[in-house]
Amino acid sequence: MLWLLIPLLAVLIIMQTTQLPRAIVHSAITEYRFFIREPAYPKRLSTRETVGLVITWLLLSTIPLSLEQPLLWQAMTLVLTAALLTGAMIDYRTGLLPFKVSSIVGISALLYTSINAPFEMTVHLITALGVATTLCLINGLSQRLWQITPLGGGDIALLAALGLCFQLSEIAAIIWIASITGLVESRIKRRSMIRFGPHLALATLCCWHLKVIL
User: Fold this and answer.
1) Cα atoms in the Cβ-side hemisphere of radius 13 Å centred on 106
2) What's the rounded mean pLDDT across residues 22-41?
C-alpha cells in the first residue's frame, strides 16, 4: 500500500512545485494586504510578553519533568513547548506564524525520530510531504472556488514539520482539535477570521502529552 502512495505523492509534489513561484507571489501580496490593514503592526514582542512566555514555559516544563519518561522525550518536549508557545504568541499578535518556528520544530522532530525510531523515518518523511502537499492543494482549490485560503503558509509549514514526529492520524487529530477550539473562539468573538497558530500549538501539546499519559 505504501509503495502505491509514493508515485501519487511524487506527482502531487511535482504539480504543486511547478506553481511555487506564483504561490510565493500570492502569499507575499496576501501578507502585504494584511500588513497595511493592521493599525499598529508590532516589530517584536514586548518585554512583558517575552517574560510571560518564559514564565509559561517554565510552568509547563514541570509536566514532562514530572513524568517518568526517557530523557530524550523530556528534552524534545521542552524544545517543542518553547517553539510552539513562541509561535503562538507571535501569530496571535501579528497573524503570521514564522517559518523559523516551523524550522525549529522540524529539525527537532527529525533528530528525535532519527534517534528514537530510526526505522520509521521514511514513513514520517512521507507523512510530512503528504500533509504539506494535501493542505496546499486544499488551499489552492478553496482559493479557486471561494477566493479564500483556509490555512496560512506558516500553519502548513508547522503541520508538515509535525509530521516528522507525529503519525498521520495524530496530525488529523491536531487539526480537528484546533478547528474545534478555533470555532469556539470565532463564535465568542463573532469573527469569521481567527489566528489559527495558537490553536494548533494547544492541540499539538495536548496530543504530544496524551501519547505518553494514555
Assistant:
1) 19
2) 53
Question: What is the distance between the alpha carbons of residues 151 and 141, in angstroms, rounded to a whole number?
Answer: 12
Contacts (Cβ under 8 Å, ≥6 apart) of 9: 126, 129, 130, 133
Q: Average pLDDT in the 161-165 region? A: 93
Helix axes 2-17, 121-146, angle to 10 degrees: 50
Judge contact between 91 and 99, C-beta under 8 A. no
Confidence of residue 94 (pLDDT cuts 50, 70, 90): confident
Q: How confident is the model at residue 2, as a pLDDT? A: 45
Residue 138, CA atoms < 13 Å, CB-side half-sphere: 11
Nearest of 81, 83, 92 to residue 58 by alpha carbon: 81
pTM for the predicted model, two decimal places = 0.79
Instruction: Read off the C-alpha cell for 161.
Output: 514539520
Domain coordinates of the chain in residue numbers? 52-60+79-214
* Residue labelled with grid coordinates 493592521: 38
Q: What DSSP character marks residue 38?
A: -
Own/partner contacts of 118-122, CB < 8 Å, gap of 24 or more, are: none
